[in-house]
Amino acid sequence: xxxxxxxxxxxxxxxxxxxxxxxxxxxxxxxxxxxxxxxxxxxxxxxxxxxxxxxxxxxxxxxxxxxxxxxxxxxxxxxxxxxxxxxxxxxxxxxxxxxxxxxxxxxxxxxxxxxxxxxxxxxxxxxxxxxxxxxxxxxxxxxxxxxxxxxxxxxxxxxxxxxxxxxxxxxxxxxxxxxxxxxxxxxxxxxxxxxxxxxxxxxxxxxxxxxxxxxxxxxxxxxxxxxxxxxxxxxxxxxxxxxxxxxxxxxxxx
Length: 254
Prior knowledge:
Layout: H1 2-19, E1 32-35, E2 43-45, E3 48-50, H2 52-63, E4 73-75, H3 78-87, E5 91-97, E6 107-122, H4 133-137, E7 142-145, H5 149-156, E8 164-167, H6 170-178, E9 184-188, H7 189-198, E10 206-221, H8 227-242, H9 245-252
Parallel strand pairs: 1-4, 1-5, 7-8, 7-9
Antiparallel strand pairs: 2-3, 5-10, 6-9, 6-10
Helix pairs in contact: 2-8, 2-9
């Protein structure tokens, strides 16, 4: 049943990709706002978009005087949304890890929260990593989401592309890990643990074998979006963190 849910979710997202089109504008409310399935920050449950980043965007945009609603946010495949934000004006993507390599690719507002990238394994397989060099040395197969920060970081750190198994959706990586089609899944640790719980897996059967990156999640804008829009959302985020609303949002997802 849990595997069926993951496959159905993939079909729903592909359908959304097929019918959605670019939205242009220089007002936050008119941007093409995109997100992916990445709990607890942005995800869909019971046909409702929710998460820390979703709630923060709604609250911060209201503070900025340009209120966004959940209906304005498109849930999409990460790689498609990422490439659209890189190449097309008028796009906003979250939650996006801010890295040195990505710094000039986007304009940024945030941070939303801290986030660690790890190698998640099944305990029963007794797989250990002393360092990322073990991936090549032991010829491990590592599941990754296409264009996700974990994939980009592993390649930057010298992990051979042939050791990576890219998938369009995180749910497919989870299935691969469950079925032992891969040795480990490189992804955000919090997101993996949330997905295990949401889809009925026993999280105690999995563990992080190695944390290889610590960073922060942000709202990422195409660089052609005006500084005024970016700065307005940044001020909104700052206000939400100062007035206590951010703490209330975090508490909701504990």
